[in-house]
Specification:
Length: about 170
């Protein structure tokens, strides 16, 4: 989740580590059932802080750069190994889907990314996601619904473009 939000593995790992340290420091007295929502709440705060700092840093650094350099942060998702053995056809389908899904996720507004990733990938229910995101359950439902709609449209458009190029 952090890597998709930042687009950079090293920054994402720093954010996760910082969130884990904060969880242990501040909430070690809580029960294990509370840890996951608390961790994701802290993680989301750290991601938002990272975005704020990055925005300010880009503005400041933009004044000092004479040429526009391409941001090479983040590696393609294909670079990460999949330890599960799969049939080549299935692996190819999954690779193609992930090539379309990653930029579609990155294009979503941050709150929609968060809601989608917590609900879909982390398996949180609406209440846990709301706790982690520090918003109402209704907001989670709205963000999640909008994320699904946007992802479906983007992936269908990409699918249509693939069909036309054949």
């Amino acid at each position: 989740m952090s890597e998709i939000a930042t687009g950079n593995r090293e920054d994402a790992l720093d954010i996760v580590q910082d969130a884990m340290i904060k969880l242990v420091d501040k909430y070690s007295d809580r029960g294990p059932d509370d840890w996951a929502p608390l961790f994701y709440r802290i993680l989301q705060s750290r991601i938002l802080d990272w975005h704020r700092r990055t925005t300010v840093r880009r503005r400041v650094m933009g004044f000092f750069r004479s040429d526009s350099t391409e941001d090479t942060a983040g590696a393609d998702i294909e670079a990460y190994p999949d330890n599960e053995s799969r049939q080549p056809e299935r692996q190819s389908e999954n690779d193609q889907l992930m090539q379309r899904l990653e930029p579609a996720l990155a294009a979503l507004p941050l709150r929609q990314q968060q809601a989608f990733l917590m609900r879909m990938w982390e398996g949180f229910d609406v209440r846990q996601t709301a706790t982690a995101m520090r918003c109402s359950e209704g907001s989670v439902k709205t963000h999640y619904s909008r994320a699904l709609k946007a992802l479906r449209m983007t992936l269908q458009e990409a699918n249509g473009a693939d069909d036309e190029s054949k």
